[in-house]
Amino acid sequence: MTVTIRDVARASGVHVSTVSRTFSAPHMVNAATRTRVLTVAEELGYRPNRAARALTTGRTHNLGLIVADIANPFFPPLIKAAHAAARQRDYHLFVADTDEEPAAEEELVQAFSKQVDGVVLCSPRSSNKALERLAERVPFVVVNRRLRGAATVLMDVGHGARLAVEHLAGLGHRRVALVSGPAGSWTSAEIRTAAEQVPGIELVVIGPNAPTERGGFAAADRVRDCAVTGVLAYNDLVAIGLIEGLADRGLSVPEDVSVVGIDDIVSGRLNRPKLTTVAMPTAAAGRLAVDLLIQEVTATTSLETRLVIRDSTAPPR
Amino acid sequence: MTVTIRDVARASGVHVSTVSRTFSAPHMVNAATRTRVLTVAEELGYRPNRAARALTTGRTHNLGLIVADIANPFFPPLIKAAHAAARQRDYHLFVADTDEEPAAEEELVQAFSKQVDGVVLCSPRSSNKALERLAERVPFVVVNRRLRGAATVLMDVGHGARLAVEHLAGLGHRRVALVSGPAGSWTSAEIRTAAEQVPGIELVVIGPNAPTERGGFAAADRVRDCAVTGVLAYNDLVAIGLIEGLADRGLSVPEDVSVVGIDDIVSGRLNRPKLTTVAMPTAAAGRLAVDLLIQEVTATTSLETRLVIRDSTAPPR
DNA sequence: TTCAAGACTGCAAACAGTTGCACTAAACCT
DNA sequence: AGGTTTAGTGCAACTGTTTGCAGTCTTGAA
Fold first, then answer.
1. Does B287 lie at the interface with A, CB-CB under 8 angstroms?
2. Where on strand C do bases come within 7 A of a protein Cβ?
3. Does residue B55 approach strand D to less than 7 Å at its CB?
C-alpha cells in the first residue's frame, strides 16, 4: 500500500541504506546513484516516514505549542509566527489549548513529550516546581514567565506599562487606576510594579480581574467609584469591556476618563474609540521561541514593547 | 535515558508483550498483573511512545488542521473547538497555516500524510483535481467547500445571506450592494447566488475584494458611488473596514447606510456600531470536522447559520 | 478422571527507517 | 609497483511497540 524505503531500494537496484542516505546524508552518496534514487523515489511517490525516522534518531522534527486559549486574540499572531518559523526549518507544530486550566499544561507536555523535540509554553500558570519537573522530560522555552534554567522569551511589558502611565501623567492625569489581571500572572505583576514606580501618579489597584471583556465590564463600577481620570487595563479586552461598562454608566472615553490597554490586538484597533495601548511583539516572540527551541540555546531574551497612542486617551477634564 | 516498555517489563517480571497489552488491550491481562504493571509503570514514569506505536498499528492518533490564516479571527474559534474535540478522544492536533497560498495546501497535506490519521482542510482553494489526488494519500474532511466523495462540513452561509438581505428588505431598503470576497471562494459564490434571489431587492455586486479590513476600506468609494442604502459584506472584517471608509467620506452607519457583515467575529461585537451579522457556527464546524475524521464517516453536513441583528442596520433615510 | 475450553502469558516477527562497521575499488603518493 | 587513503556501498543490528501464534495452567463439564 504505502511505499517504503525498501520499495525504492528494490526499484533502483541499491541497498536500503543507500536510499536512506540519499535523503538524510546526500553528500555520502555518489551523484549518479543519488539522482537515480531520487527519480525513482519521485516516480513511486515515496516520502520518508517521520515516525520511523524518529524512532532511531530520537528527533521527531515536531514542536509543541501550548497556550491558555487559542481564541484569545492575543495568541493567534504568536501561533502564526511560530508556525511560520517552524515550517521554515521543516518542523511541524502541534498546537494545544489548556482552556485556562493550569493542570492541563502538565498533562499536555507529558503527552507531547515523546512526540516532539521541544515545546513552547506560553504564559504558563503551573508552579515552578511543576515546570522544573517537566523540564526533565522535554526541552522547552517559556514565553512571558521568568524561570531559572529554562530558555525564556519575555516581552518587556513592565517598560510598556511605565510608558503608558507616563503618557497619562504627561497628559495631566494624577490619579489613575490599574485594572489588573488574574492572580498569579507574571504579566500582571510586572505591570503593577512598573506602574507603581512612576513619579507623580497616585495608583489605585483594582483586581484581580478575569482577563476578558467581561472582566473589564465588571470592573466599571469600581473604576467609577474610585474617582480616577485615567486607567491602565491589564489587556485590550479588559479595556474594551471597561469602556463599554463606563459608557453604560454615562462616562465616555476619553472625555471623562482615559483608558489605555495592553497587547494591541486587532479588536483594539477596530474599536471606537481606537485604543491607546502597549503593543506586544507577539509575532516576534513566537518566532524567537521556536528558533531558540530548534537551536537548543537556552537564553533569556526580553523583547521591546512600545506605546501606541490612539484615541482613548486625552487630558483630564 | 528514556524509559521503555522493556524497562517496565523487567521491573515487573513479565514479558514486554504483557506490558504492551496492559496499555492497549487491558482486558486481555489478569487483573493482578495489570495493576502490578501499572504501578511499576507509574513509578518509572513510563509513557508509551506513540511514534513507535504508530509504526506497527498505522494509526498515529494525530490529526492535521489546515487553515488559510491562523490570525484571521474567523479561524481561532474553529481551531479551539477542533482541538477540544481531538483532545477528548486523545488525539493531538497539528495546526498549519497556508498563508493564503493555495500551493501550500497540497504541500502541507503531503508533509502531514505519514504523521496523521487525517486532516481537516478549511476553505481550501486548491483545484478539485488536486484535492482528489490528495485524498488518495490521507483521509480528510473539507470545511466550507463542496467536494464530491470527501467528507464535508458546510456552514449554510447562503441561507444566512438570504436572511441578511431579507432583513434589509424588511427595513425598507431596495437597492443594496454586495461587497464580495476573493475570486474563487466557495463562500463568496454562495453568498452571491443567495443574495440575488431575494425578491424586491436590486443587488449591485462590488468585487472581488480582499477578505480583510483593508479590502472593505478600499471598497468604500465604489459603495458610495453606486447609491445604495444597504450593504452586505463578505465578512465582518470587510464590513468593519467599509464602515471606516464610509466614515472617512462623511457617511455614517447606520444613519446613511446600513451594513451587515458575516461571521460574527468578536471584533464585530466590540466594534462601534455593533455589527449586524450572520453568525457562522465555526466552533461546531471544527468539532464536527474532527469527529467525522476520527470516526471515518464520510458524510456531508450543512450547519445552520443565523442572523444577529445589532446596531449597524436601520431603515433607510 | 479425563478432556475441552478458556484465560493468561511468552515468543518472535514485523513496522520503516538509521548508522557503525566492513568491504571493494579507484585514486593518490612515493 | 606497492601501499595508503578515500569514496561509495552493503550488511545487520537497533529504535519501541504491536500482534498472530503457540504454549501453560485452570476450570468446568461429562
1. no
2. 7-12, 14-20
3. yes
Q: Identify the CATH assignment for B62-155+282-305 out of 3.40.50.2300, 3.10.150.10, 3.40.640.10, 3.30.479.20.
A: 3.40.50.2300
Q: What tens-digit pLDDT sequence spans chain B (317 residues)?
A: 689 999 999 999 999 999 999 999 999 999 999 999 999 999 999 999 999 999 999 999 999 999 999 999 999 999 999 999 999 999 999 999 999 888 999 999 999 999 999 999 999 989 999 999 999 889 999 999 999 889 999 999 999 999 999 999 999 999 999 999 998 889 999 999 999 999 999 999 998 999 999 999 999 999 999 999 999 999 999 999 999 999 999 999 999 999 999 999 988 888 889 999 999 999 999 999 999 999 999 999 999 999 999 999 999 98
CATH number of A62-155+282-304: 3.40.50.2300
Q: How many CA within 13 A on the CB side of residue A267?
A: 29
Write out the CATH class of domain B157-281: alpha beta
Closest C-alpha among A256, A254, A255, A300 to residue A277: A254
Distance from B251 to chain A by nearest Cα, in Å? 16
**Nearest CB neighbour to A95, from listed B83, B115, B244:** B83
Q: Using an 8 Å Cβ cutoff, are A181 and A213 in contact?
A: no
Grid cell 508483550 in the structure block, residue? B17
Query: Are A214 and A241 within 8 A, CB to CB?
Result: yes
CATH class for the domain made up of B5-48: mainly alpha
Q: Is A218 on the interface with B (CB under 8 A)?
A: no
Asked if the Cβ of residue A23 lies within 7 A of any atom of strand C, the reply is: yes
Integer CA distances (angstroms), A34 to A15, A46, A47, A53, A145, in order: 12, 14, 15, 20, 48
Are both B62-155+282-305 and B157-281 of the same fold?
yes
Residue A261 to residue A238: CA distance in whole angstroms: 8
* CA A239/CA B92 separation, integer angstroms: 34
Domain boundaries along the sequence of chain A: 5-48, 62-155+282-304, 157-281
